């Protein structure tokens, strides 16, 4: 009798050791979908085959693969304005775009460069050499690595294309230089604005931009490398008549590039097309040289 009781106690102990615990941690949430699943069901795409049914969703699992996990970053709202550097007469010329806000501003800028100028901008001679498919690969340590969609063209064309990218991307505080990967005619190392400064025209107008609606007084701004740093400005109405003129001096000139900014005032009786001109007065004969024309819409003042 005692032997039977001992044997019964031994069997009970063994069975108790094999049973799962009644409490405790289930472990960390899975980091990937389980490979095992529930019963097999007929595949709707093959008809005769079978595929594992997806496991039921649980509060501890990650979202489905097509729904990327949240990074916790705020969703951009509003708009963002970016400068774009196009090409005119073999020189760099800026314009501007306002688009819905995005965290990927470098990608947005390259996409806009590849899209090219608007009809109004193209009418002034602006064009782009940056091809579709150009994309930023990474930004680290102030250097943006960029892959261009195409690299064909003579040396001057390739250099202008690179200059467009460099001058456009270095407007962002996180980008000081650009590295092209593969180099494809570019320097092996990173390059910055100074490497393409010779591709700027003597006078650059950064504001206003082509097609902008402007009212008086208007601040005209940009950079210049002109004789005695003197930049002249005038406003033309729809009939091409001069309705205002002024001049200013850049912060540097005659062999160095400096910033300039000046307010110009005019009066018009109705909204109409107009032109802002920035130019240099020739020291030899007083003619207007290095003229930059920006078509705008003149709006009457209140």
Walkthrough of the structure:
The model is unreliable at 1-71 (pLDDT under 50). The protein folds into two domains: 79-199, no CATH class; 203-299, Immunoglobulin-like (Sandwich). The protein starts with a helix and ends with a strand. α4 links the parallel β6 (143-147) and β7. The longest helix is centred in the first third of the chain and has 17 residues, at 2-18. It is globular, with a radius of gyration of 33 Å. It contains four helices and 15 strands. The chain has helices at residues 2-18, 105-115, 119-123, 155-169; strands at residues 40-42, 50-52, 79-88, 91-100, 135-140, 143-147, 177-180, 203-207, 213-215, 218-224, 230-236, 242-249, 258-264, 272-281, 288-299. α2 packs antiparallel against α4 (155-169). Helices cover 16% and strands 33% of the residues. 25% of the residues are buried. It has a five-stranded mixed beta sheet with strand order 9-15-14-11-12, with no helix packed on it. It is of the alpha+beta class. InterPro entries: GerMN, Gmad2_Ig-like_dom. It comes from Micromonospora costi. Residues 21-78 are annotated as: Disordered. Residues 106-192 form the GerMN domain. Keywords: Signal.
